[in-house]
Amino acid sequence: MKILATIKRVADPDMKIKISEDGTSLETAGAEYTYNQMDEWGVEEALLQKEKHGGEVVVVSVGSPDSVNELRKAGLAVGADRAIIVETDADLDSDAVARLLAEVVKREEPDVIMMGKLSLDTDRNQTAQLLATYLDYPQATDAFNVEIADGWATVGREIDGGTNTKRVQLPAVITATERLNEPRYASLPGIMKAKRKPVETITPDELGVDIAVKVKTVKYELPPERAAGMIVADLDELLDKLKNEAKAF
pLDDT of 51-72, one tens digit each? Predict the structure, then answer.
């Protein structure tokens, strides 16, 4: 079995965001980057399925040349066999990323594509769905349990108001939630081995994909600062402020 797992390079979520003076972009000077933590669950599930069924785990990232650091840390160092980076400095939307990944999938022909349910930087939750559409593959999103047997995946899914179970024929796209597993830590030997594992670099031109974006960010705005709290004399004053000032009811 071959499983392809995606890893995205994102700005550190604990970093304080700064917006450019004209509001059209984010300040990236001095920014720190890490891997999308939600992709960890997809990588871990790929490794667990490999341990059950044998085969190969390939991690892939779309982004700047520096994305190779995240591929090694979050993929190769924990047990993935090899890595692929689709190298571009362009600011891509979800559609362009999905089309690039679709071409990688066609080259690799994996049985399963494992992804995090969304990325922490954009929170869009749509690349996996677009990818499945371009490939005409079945998909099972928000997985908290995955069982693979006889060419099918039985996936327990989180849905609004509860859970359900979906059975999809492979190859398929599956996205992971935090309930799916507990990602392993990279060991020192794993980190050393990751430096020697192969990383293939591909460009969008080599994949034959036009990466012109369809979605453009017009402006960034910080949320308004929270007002200071206040002390009220009694319940009647509290209810009055909730009703007439906060318009809570």
Answer: 999 999 999 999 999 999 999 9
Q: Whole-prediction pTM value?
A: 0.85
CB atoms within 10 A of CB 65: 11
The CATH number given to whatever domain includes residue 173 is: 3.40.50.620
What is the CA 242 to chain-centroid distance, rounded? 39
Does some domain include residue 166? Answer: yes
Domains: count for the chain: 1
Q: Helix 127-135 vs helix 94-108: angle between axes, to the nearest 10 degrees?
A: 50
Task: Give residue 186's Cα distance to chain centre.
Answer: 19
Q: Is the pLDDT of residue 177 over 80?
A: yes
Give whole-number Cα distances, 231 to 14, 39, 141, 238, in Å. 31, 44, 46, 9
In a domain, 175, yes or no: yes
Residue 43: other Cβ atoms inside 10 A: 28
In this structure, are strands 199-202 and 82-87 parallel, antiparallel, or unpaired? parallel
Residue for token pair 């890490």: 34
CA dihedral (156, 157, 163, 166) in degrees, to 10, reads -60
- DSSP, collapsed to helix, strand or coil, labels residue 209 as coil
